[in-house]
Amino acid sequence: MPTKIEKDALTGRHTTGHEWDGLQELNTPLPKWWLYTFIACCIFAVGYIALFPSIPYGRDYFHGWLQASSRTAVDADVKALEAQRAFSMDKIKYTPIAQVKDDPKLLAVATAAGRIAFANNCQPCHGAGGEGRVGYPSLADDTWLWGGTLADIQQTITYGIRSGNDRARNSVMPNFGAGGLLTPAQIEAVADFVWGAFYGHAAEGQDLSKGRAVFAENCAVCHGANGEGSRTVGAPPLKSAVHLYGDLRAAIVAQVTNPRMGVMPSWEKKTNITGLDEATIKSVAIYVHALGGGE
Amino acid sequence: MASMDKLRNAAAEEGKVSQPSLYASQVTVYPKAVHGPARAVKWGILVFCLTVYYLLPWLRWDRGPGRVSQAVLLDLPTRRFYLFGLELWPQDIWLLTGLLILSAVGLFLVTSLAGRVWCGYTCPQTVWTDLYMWIERLLEGDRNARMRRDQGPASLDKIWRKLAKHTLWFAVAFWTGGAFIMYFVDAPTLTVQFWTGEAATEAYVFIGLFTATTYLLAGWAREQVCTYMCPWPRFQASMLDEQSLIVTYQNWRGEPRGHRKIDAGKPANAGLGHCIDCLACVHACPTGIDIRDGVQLECINCGLCVDACNEMMVRTGQPKWLVTWDTLAGQKAKAQGTHEAFRFLRPRTLIYAGAMVVGITVMWAAMATRARLDLAVQHDRAPLFVQVRDGSIRNGYTLKISNKTQARAEFVLTMHGLAGGAMLLAEQPATPAPALVLPVDADGIGTFRLLVFGHPTPGSDGSQQFDFILRNATTGERTTYTSVFMGPRGG
Lengths: 295, 491
What we know:
Among the domains of chain A are: 82-168 and 270-289, Cytochrome Bc1 Complex, Chain D, domain 2; 184-257, Cytochrome c-like domain (Cytochrome Bc1 Complex, Chain D, domain 2). Chain A has 11 helices and 3 strands, in the order E-E-E-H-H-H-H-H-H-H-H-H-H-H. Chain A has helices at residues 32-51, 70-94, 97-102, 104-121, 123-126, 150-159, 184-198, 209-218, 220-223, 249-257, 278-289, and strands at residues 15-20, 23-26, 30-31. Chain A is elongated and about 120 Å long. The model of chain A has no long low-confidence stretch (mean pLDDT 91). Chain B is an alpha+beta fold. Chain B folds into 3 domains: 2-60 and 115-236, no CATH class; 241-335, no CATH class; 373-486, Sandwich (Immunoglobulin-like). Chain B has helices spanning 2-13, 37-55, 94-114, 117-122, 124-140, 143-151, 156-181, 187-196, 201-221, 223-229, 232-235, 251-254, 280-284, 304-315, 328-335, 347-369; strands at residues 23-24, 72-75, 80-83, 86-88, 246-249, 323-326, 373-379, 386-387, 393-403, 409-416, 422-425, 435-440, 444-454, 463-472, 478-486. In chain B, the strands form 4 sheets. In chain B, strands 7, 8, 9, 11 and 13 form a 5-stranded antiparallel beta sheet that branches. In chain B, strand 3 and strand 4 (86-88) form a beta hairpin. In chain B, helix 5 (124-140) packs antiparallel against helix 7. Chain B is elongated. The interface between A and B is medium-sized, with 33 and 31 residues.
């Protein structure tokens, strides 16, 4: 408690009575409204503490009477967004896919929904940008094993490939080597032919006629006489720079000897409980189509 | 608090420890109306500032069909600032920084030349306080009438006048808050929406907020804002020097002050200075100080005391300008009977003026030469590149073209440094071509996804730099963006 209040001779003002090593403090009064504002702020703070999350209890905390939480707010926002999108998604469901693409508003919704659904479901095999990898076709290039139109893509996603679904895209590459349809020598010859004539690695003056004959007799029915492939049976084009199972000659031998045949699940809700609804499938098809190679 | 003061006083009377309060009650200031040049200039500036503030949002500006038609509009949702013929994009926000720096330096310059004229004449706090005082005077009369009524008992006359004053104050506050919002949304639209209840919640909140602050600050807080809230009085001391023109009481001429007798020849008048100690300067002061105490923190340099004193000097037959604008150095010289000329050119003013000239030049040059065209390119990250059937490599890019002109334009995109490169827009069937024509709306940003086909240089590490060149087909303005084309290593 200050005791020695004096009048300062120089300024004619009172001191507060505080003294530190001979230094005294002049009394400069604070305006009263400032004090009242301070008190009002304190009262506001008490109310704020009561209404909002404020006091930590160790593991838990005081949630406040309003039970305010940014988590609940986010949930509400997400719900509101879903409700907002529900109308558009419904519209996408009942609109033919080509018309969805022509409607800028629906296209924007479909692209956004498709991107998310793609990242959640397709990315593990086909890659973040649809770039694919060995055995899993790239969706960003211009090669389509089963067709690259919007309708083709929608069908592939809905029913899958060799998925067991009744309407799945199905085909089998014969087991030429292990099944004994071709001798190892014939397999080497046909590999030479594909590697040389289609992959473009033919050595100068190399004789490919033996392999050509084997190809014409066994492979051309699906892969085409000129290696152009066939979409009706999902036979990959061989005269191409893009190769599903890699760019090595050994991969050709391996594929003819004991073929790998990729499987893609059916995404329709009816046969796949983790599947996607129709509007989402359409959205994914539109998104995939736009990755770079859509036809 | 009042009862505490009473207790303290009682204690003091009893000879116990007396402690002056640490808190000061607000002393109501009743400024008296004055007439004179300072008042006239102050009215002029007030009318000009308020007219501009209230009416500017209503000024229209033709920017073509379908475009914003408000002359001054700070359109935050679309991120455009419209200032008459000028249109600023978010990239131009540094101009605001420049403007603020220029304003600060300008304030320093003016203060070192002519004291706190900003505070006295143009500060919004001063302008609105003055307007509110005018309303107060209109309804409650001048200083004496107001003081008498405030001290008197509650009467019908007192109540209706107070009620009318606060209603008018509130109306002005509301118009002030409303006008502020109109700088951010189209004025006629907002006005209609406000009264039909269709305006955005934010509009109501901000109008309410600015109505409340105007009413409180100009009606109630007044000089308290200048004295206790504003930082400017605190650091103005470093801008002022003995060469700054400030409102000054000419001590050497006025002292010793004193009431004089009517007959000028009476011996009682002998030895008195020109100051008749009538307190006219004190009564006119909007911050309630006595200018005769010298330079002080509360003085806003408005010069109303000059007008008030001049009136009294004329009436008492003495020379005018006892309270005047002068420098401390000038006063010192005059007290000694010499003369010191006002010095415009001092290191301080030259440095401030130089900084302003440099700032204005740089900003003007930057404004005049700023690009009306901007190109931003983002290379796809996944996948970095794609090989297509015929063996060539394809890269994906997202282009953003900013068309800052006022007309829709076609932009010609070409590439430089990518041999044999060709491009097309994704999702638009076409044969890849070496050049594309891309239309972008007036004042718009066009986003395009571009697929570029090429063959990377053999033996390289797969990535190759090249330039996108974009040209506005109408104006011919060009810009270049250096990007990269990726391919397999050793491709």
